[in-house]
Amino acid sequence: MQEIYNAESRTHAEKAIEAFAKTYGAKFPKAVAKITEHRDELLAFYDFPAEHWIHLRTTNPIESTFSTVKLRTKVTRDAGSPAAALAMVFKLVESAQARWRAITGAHLVPLVRAGARFENGILLERSEVAA
């Protein structure tokens, strides 16, 4: 699993998936089926800049974002009205965002949003079509 996760390119990850399937196919057929059937989704991060991979590989960004809110709301139990609860959650998230890690390679986000193509984390040059 670590070889798939930490592969340096899509080709190496594909080879690691095949090795995983060969090694564990008989013992864990359902796990191997999930990985092999959904390999495109599993390896989709290779279509983005390499600087963004650390953020895309994370297992649960929603949980880490709201962990502060979850801890505080369990302690207070009843926040009163729905408006008070919403205000409390807003202020907790607002204060927690100061500790969030900034995205690596933020200068590449406009390229991704514009539809630039990346292969194995490297920007592909657009070939100009002769008119």
UniProtKB/TrEMBL annotation:
<protein>
    <recommendedName>
        <fullName>Mutator family transposase</fullName>
    </recommendedName>
</protein>
<dbReference type="Pfam" id="PF00872">
    <property type="entry name" value="Transposase_mut"/>
</dbReference>
<dbReference type="InterPro" id="IPR001207">
    <property type="entry name" value="Transposase_mutator"/>
</dbReference>
<keyword id="KW-0238">DNA-binding</keyword>
<keyword id="KW-0233">DNA recombination</keyword>
<comment type="similarity">
    <text>Belongs to the transposase mutator family.</text>
</comment>
<keyword id="KW-0814">Transposable element</keyword>
<comment type="function">
    <text>Required for the transposition of the insertion element.</text>
</comment>
<keyword id="KW-0815">Transposition</keyword>
